[in-house]
């Protein structure tokens, strides 16, 4: 059968779908084949996109990096990340970014700095809330929390440079209803420097 609909149908009973970044007919220079993109958007279970390993393979001692945006959609990615980190005995890097800074021109420099600090603390609390419970369930997993003012894709690419795995949800804050793949996960499908898992909630309704 056709690759995409055949595999999508199988994913309703699968724990994980693993695909390569290229396939038959892939064009030289393309980062990801059309089949991988379609499956990342339409599969009914988590999807791993694995590109060709660099010389020497992926760093076996590298961390697992998970993107956490504070939305319920990232819960599946958090669960998957803790489970994998526990199995592999590696560090988990939880990355949360923010860039919603509104500056009033009438505010002084000190007031702006104060407001930014308050916003940063709020985002740290948001990350702590998302991680609460998971660290108790997986006490063996060492977690490094990263909260920074940055774009999600840029931050995940930076912290994932030496990682053995990156995990993200299928959609996050600002995701449009009906969209199959969020902008962050879509960009990482193309540019992730290591294997990427898009952990989609299994009960998520999709367009067919």
Radius of gyration equals: 18 Å
> Counting H and I runs of at least 4 residues, what is the number of helices?
7
Into which percentage range does the β-strand content fall?
Answer: 15-25%
Give the integer mean of the pLDDT values. Answer: 80
Distance between the termini: 18 Å
SSE pattern, N- to C-terminal: HEHEEHEHHEHEHE
The best one-word shape is: globular
Helix content: 25-40%
Decide which structural class fits the backbone: alpha/beta
Largest sheet: 7 strands, mixed
Tell me how many strands there are.
Answer: 7
List keywords for this structure.
about 210 residues; alpha/beta; seven-stranded mixed sheet; about 15% strand
Break the fold down into its secondary structure elements and pairings.
Blueprint: H1 3-10, E1 17-20, H2 34-42, E2 47-50, E3 64-67, H3 75-88, E4 92-98, H4 109-131, H5 134-137, E5 143-149, H6 152-159, E6 165-169, H7 183-191, E7 196-199
Parallel strand pairs: 1-2, 3-4, 3-6, 4-5, 6-7
Antiparallel strand pairs: 2-7
Tell me briefly what this model is.
The protein has 208 residues and is of the alpha/beta class. It has helices at 3-10, 34-42, 75-88, 109-131, 134-137, 152-159, 183-191; strands at 17-20, 47-50, 64-67, 92-98, 143-149, 165-169, 196-199.
């Amino acid at each position: 059968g056709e690759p995409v609909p055949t595999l999508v149908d199988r994913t309703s009973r699968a724990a994980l779908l693993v695909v390569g970044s290229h396939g038959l007919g892939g064009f030289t220079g393309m980062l990801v084949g059309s089949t991988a993109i379609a499956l990342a958007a339409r599969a009914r279970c988590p999807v791993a996109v694995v590109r060709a390993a660099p010389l020497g393979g992926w760093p076996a001692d590298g961390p697992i990096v998970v993107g956490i945006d504070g939305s319920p959609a990232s819960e599946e990615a958090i669960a998957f990340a803790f489970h994998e980190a526990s199995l592999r005995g590696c560090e988990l890097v939880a990355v949360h970014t923010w860039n919603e800074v509104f500056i009033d021109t009438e505010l002084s420099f000190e007031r702006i700095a104060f407001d930014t600090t308050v916003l940063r603390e709020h985002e740290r609390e948001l990350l702590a809330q998302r991680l609460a419970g998971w660290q108790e369930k997986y006490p063996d997993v060492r977690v490094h929390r990263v909260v920074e003012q940055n774009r999600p894709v840029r931050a995940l690419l930076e912290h994932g440079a030496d990682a053995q795995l990156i995990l993200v949800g299928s959609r996050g804050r600002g995701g449009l209803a009906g969209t199959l793949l969020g902008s962050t996960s879509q960009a990482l499908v193309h540019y992730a420097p290591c294997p990427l898992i898009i952990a989609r909630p299994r009960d998520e309704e999709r367009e067919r």
